[in-house]
Amino acid sequence: MALLGTLGLDVGIGTVVLGLAIGLGAGVAITISTVHRRRRYRDTATMRAFFAAIDTGRLPEHLDQEQWGSMIGSEITERTRAQSSSWAFLILAAGLVVNAAVNEPRWFYVATAVFLLGQFAWIRVSTPRILASLISLAAQGRARGYPAITQFR
């Protein structure tokens, strides 16, 4: 820990190990999430087309109705769940700010709280736009008479 000491950070080995464990755990979680998403969309081209449709708000002319209906439905469910659970980020951030007031190292708690507040803000700002686009895509599918897409909002 001599390197950290020369940087002016007086931390113990436990803090370093905890930081590494959290970083590695987050990396593994992101990797698993990415692999799961790619499997849901079958291939990268379909995934890109799906997110392009969300961005533009237009359903492609030629598509696999079953697959797109499933993707739209699962994305609506996932985004709604994320929006509901985003309040946990705010509660955790508040707890970390309180913890920073009474414990050391304060920089760790404050930095983590700022990260959590950023996550909360990102979800609360981006999710309503994405949900509106997904609902629009489902409505376009219903207008075209696609039975697989009509089961969603």
Comma- or semicolon-separated keywords:
153 residues; mainly alpha
Q: Span between N and C termini?
A: 55 Å
- Shape, per Cα inertia axes: elongated
- Radius of gyration, taken over Cα atoms and rounded to an integer in Å: 21 Å
> What is the tally of beta strands?
0
Q: Unreliable segments (pLDDT under 50, ≥5 consecutive)?
A: none
Give the percentage of residues in beta strands.
Answer: under 5%
The profile of the biggest β sheet is:
none
Share of helical residues: over 70%
Overall pLDDT level: 84
The helix-strand sequence is HHHHHH
Structural class: mainly alpha
Count of DSSP H/I helices = 6
Q: What would you note in describing this structure?
A:
The protein is mainly alpha-helical. 80% of the residues lie in helices and 0% in strands. Helix 3 (44-56) crosses helix 6 (106-144) and helix 4 runs antiparallel to helix 6 (106-144). It is elongated, with a radius of gyration of 21 Å. It starts with a helix and ends in a 9-residue tail after the last helix. The relative contact order is 0.12. The mean pLDDT is 84.
